[in-house]
Amino acid sequence: MKDFRLFDIMDFVMDEDFVRWVHEQRPEDEAAWQAWLTRNPDKHLVVAEARNILKSIYMAPPAITTQEIEKETERLLQTIQQQPEQAPAKVTRMRSRTWYAAAAVLVVCLAGALYYINNTKSTKTSFTWEKVTASRELIEHVNTSATAVTIPLSDGSSVSLAPGSRIGYANRFDSADTRDVYLSGEAFFEVTKNPDRPFRVFANEIVTKVLGTSFTVRSFDNDTTIQVIVRTGKVTVYSQAVTNTRRSATDHKPGEVILTPNQQLVYEKAAHKFQKVLLDDPLLIVPQVTEQKMEYEEASLVDVFNELSKAYGINVVYDSELVGKCTVTADLRNETFYHKLDLICSAIGASYEVIDGQVVVQSNGCQ
Amino acid sequence: MPENDAQADQILLKQLQQSDAQALATLMKKYYTDLYSYGMRFAQDEALVKDCIQEVFISLWQRRENVTTILSLKYYLLRAVKNKMLKSLHQQANKTDSLDNQDTYDFLQEYSIERLIIEKQVSDEKAAALRRTLTQLSPRQHEVIYLKFYQHLDHGQIAELMHISRQSVYNLLNEALQKLRTLWHAEFLTK
Question: Is there a contact between B30 and B6 (Cβ–Cβ < 8 Å)?
């Protein structure tokens, strides 16, 4: 144990524990140092000077969210999977500004697409069940009953096939690199983890690709949309309609959309466009006991949002500088996700919107 | 607990050696914020920094058979990101000027003195004096401060990363901190 009583200003400035107290402002450090100062009152001035020096060089942590880091990690995994052994490194360049532009265009197209669909009969696409599966020898299941049927697959995954739906797959999936399943209708998949062999669901022109997770795909030939809903884990979805050539199993294209729990993807067939929305009643992705702790008294709003975001796997976006001083006293146990949000927002006079599968909170801050 | 941390890294590097992609993902998540923060010091170009970090981890994957020889992974990654950033910036800036001037680069540092001003209610003159002092520091001093206080590297690692001697690290740091000390000391005397 270091004897801080012997420390001079510069010793404090250079000391890692001291730096952590001043820069990171953790409550446990705060308590320990305040106690130490009570025992050593003559050190107040030295500590105050050392604190000021450190505060002068304080820098805000970098503005990168855990979601962005997840996205980059995903990108890394995609890249190394598609790389042949010992090939020179090459990154698929992704310029974030282009992405924002694409997102903006998407919104406009969707509005257009809705108008288009309402005013014309939906055109038959070339990705019907017959066309997609014609050249393949598949084991087929058709559910003609009135209830869902569960089908176990050879890799340990299982499919719960909805009434009026049909699924097909090759014996043992016949490819070494992927596990491919063809779907017409609706099914809930629970996929066994296997990072070396992505599990792919072909549903009309939409391909949903996962390494191991559970999710629902709804794609009836006569619907104007195709929907993918994620329960756990993460899936990527892309359209075959954009380029009609067969892609390699692990190819990563910018047209891919990544879905996280409680997000739903709606694909407009006529317009070939994706839209990400949140489920009407998002489910907890953490154990129930965690939710039972969501009772707050004068808690920091930022902490409450963080816990909420973790409990549902849904990104909550807000201006941390504006709401930094806000506190919340509320009992959020056993409430639905949106009711929780309503309670928090009404307590601090804020409002929220759901944009692109995220919750965006608008607030004027607190005094 | 740096020792435990180093042990945790060693375990992950062993898994990486066995071609475990999840170990690589875990390492990326663990160090992403630090590397991103450092990369942004060389150029405030998010996409460029992200691409550089991608490349660093891809080459880590490609040389995975030998990764267990890396002693301090954090130091290794920081150095790799710095080299990649300077290389890309250099290529962007001037392709003809190939005679490398590796040791002249800017180091952007944004200190948030507003936090201090709000908390302590320092006078306007004091805030102005502090701003002046901070802007007088050289890019090298900013980098030493950053690596010492934000990446928690030891003086030996800072010296190696910046291609300077340990004594220079000490001098740069001491000079910068003494300037701040004088500034604040005056404050305490006049109160």
Answer: no
